[in-house]
Specification:
By secondary structure, the protein is of the alpha/beta class. It is about 40% helix and about 15% strand. It has 2 domains: about 10-130 and about 235-350, Periplasmic binding protein-like II (D-Maltodextrin-Binding Protein, domain 2, 3-Layer(aba) Sandwich); about 135-230, 3-Layer(aba) Sandwich (D-Maltodextrin-Binding Protein, domain 2), CATH 3.40.190. It contains 14 helices and 10 strands. The strands form 2 sheets. A 5-stranded mixed sheet has the order 2-1-3-10-4, with helices on both faces. A 5-stranded mixed sheet has the order 7-6-8-5-9, sandwiched between helices. The longest helix is centred in the N-terminal third of the chain and has 24 residues, at about 15-40.
Length: about 350
């Protein structure tokens, strides 16, 4: 397969702060996008008839593996999409890539997306993969309660990332004020970076999903909470796009969403192939760890990935502590279900209704 180099569109984006962030992110993650693309695409048959769509991934995780595994098995190509998933990291990195048109769609945590729309960017969510926080709060052995984190250093990767939001919500729910009672630092490399910071005692706490949370437990770190089991409803990974692109390419978004719905079904029903895909995507050699991650997430994968008003409202309440505009915002302003509804009303999704 011939891998084409990714153009940086520097003439468009180099004169803005957002553009500079996009260029840095593109350079940083170019090699990994090329390596991953070698196994994501099974063939280029009829590629000339497909529309090229690049999607920015907010993390390299079991949760985000749905899209590259679906691409690997041709589930987007059959709906006319020549898909290229590229890891950029959560927060502003992925938003910058989207606004610069370096990518056409975003698959990352909803917090940064909603914050960007409040800030005036014409960005809309079209699907939400989960409305629950999917992390365990992992801490140093001497931390026995949330209050023991007072005065200590923690990390959620970077401000605006899903992990950062989850950790801040957890601390707030226990009466701690992030950035005042607890010090937040940024780290690189998403989940691996957070794990490394904890393992090397750079931080006293972070949030991790399997398999990282399991490895942390095996190394003697303590799980304070499994956030899936809390009553916190919060909009998680979402599919988002810029208004001008969606208006010009509605068929591309519809084709992507059909492939996404089918990929979610594939994840739920094709365990062996999905676990093998997780191992490749995350470069895990231990099958048991990949399988643990699969078992953790499988029941969280929806048939139809609709956004939840309650989940978005929780994001807005979280953002309101730093941006008063979020306080009275209407959750329905941040998502557009018309594409998913059209797909569902056509009968397309009925064939994928089985959860296992």
């Amino acid at each position: 397969m011939k891998v084409m180099p990714l153009r940086l569109h520097s003439n468009i984006i180099s004169n803005s702060l957002v553009g500079r962030r996009a260029i840095v992110a593109l350079r940083r993650h170019f090699i990994i996008s090329i390596v991953l693309s070698l196994w994501w695409f099974p063939s280029l048959v009829d590629a000339q008839q497909r529309e090229k769509v690049r999607v920015a991934l907010g993390s390299i995780s079991v949760n985000s593996s749905v899209i590259p595994i679906g691409a690997q098995h041709g589930l987007f190509g059959k709906h006319g999409i020549d898909l290229e998933p590229i890891y950029f990291g959560g927060g502003m990195n992925s938003i910058a890539a989207l606004t610069s048109n370096s990518v056409q769609l975003l698959a990352a945590g909803s917090t940064a997306t909603i914050g960007a729309r409040i800030g005036g960017i014409d960005i809309t969510m079209f699907a939400v993969q989960s409305n629950k926080l999917d992390y365990s709060v992992m801490v140093a052995p001497d931390v026995k309660t949330p209050q023991d984190l007072k005065g200590k250093i923690v990390t959620g990767t970077r401000t605006g990332a899903s992990a950062d939001t989850a950790l801040r919500l957890y601390l707030q729910s226990h009466g701690l004020v992030p950035d005042k009672d607890v010090v937040f630092i940024s780290v690189a490399d998403s989940q691996q970076g957070r794990f490394n910071a904890l393992a090397r005692s750079v931080v006293a706490g972070t949030v991790l999903p399997p398999p990282y949370s399991t490895v942390a437990k095996q190394q003697g770190f303590r799980e304070l909470s499994d956030l899936r089991k809390t009553d916190i409803e919060y909009s998680g990974t979402s599919i988002a796009g810029i208004g001008s692109y969606i208006k010009a390419h509605p068929a591309a978004l519809e084709g992507f969403l059909k492939g996404y719905i089918e990929s979610l079904h594939f994840f739920r029903t094709q365990k062996e192939k999905t676990v093998a895909g997780i191992m490749k995507y995350m470069r895990i050699s231990d099958r048991s760890r990949a399988e643990e991650g699969y078992d953790y997430y499988v029941d969280m994968m929806p048939v139809m990935p609709y956004a939840s008003n309650a989940g978005i409202r929780a994001v807005l309440q979280f953002l309101a502590t730093r941006n008063p505009k979020a306080l009275n915002a209407n959750p329905e302003e941040f998502y557009d279900h018309s594409f998913l509804k059209k797909i569902e009303e056509s009968g397309f999704s009925k064939q994928f209704a089985a959860r296992r």
